[in-house]
Amino acid sequence: MLTEIWKSFRAMPAWVQIWVAFLLVPINMAAILFIDQPSGVWIAILAIGAIALNIPVMFYDRGFSKLMAFSHLIPWTILVVWIVFARPAGTEAFNTYLWILLFTDLISLAFDFPDALKWWKGDREPERSGK
């Protein structure tokens, strides 16, 4: 099963693989480094939780599908709104991180909302090589 998930990941366009592996996941996971900051625990729960919710989806679909977009919609939308309208005051490093997290998750949501709609309309097959 892990091999199928890996092959599905590798079947995605190269830019998506780079985005997910080197930007999206690490930037959201970095929230754990700031749990000592104001609202840091909640920010980490929203940032990391949205990624963690994809694990059962990957196993269910045996790969990466548009269903994975749904796990981001609520947590990251809440997170983005929170950062924009109620940004917690913290260290300079935390403030810089929040800006990076905001832009990263906004970009992701720009793909997630259309992907969720595509899934809802029937595009439910995971990425597979040789499609």
Give a written overview of the molecule.
With 131 residues, the chain is mostly helical. The protein has one domain (2-120). The chain has helices at residues 2-11, 14-29, 40-52, 54-61, 70-85, 92-120. The relative contact order is 0.18.
Helix-strand blueprint:
Layout lengths: L1 H10 L2 H16 L10 H13 L1 H8 L8 H16 L6 H29 L11
End-to-end separation: 19 Å
As for the number of domains, it is: 1
Count of alpha and pi helical runs? 6
Look at the helices and sheets and give the structural class: mainly alpha
The percentage of residues in β strands lies in under 5%
Indicate the radius of gyration in whole angstroms: 15 Å
**Mean pLDDT over the residues:** 94
Keyphrases for this structure?
131 residues; mainly alpha; 0% strand; elongated
In short:
This protein is mainly alpha-helical and about 130 residues long.
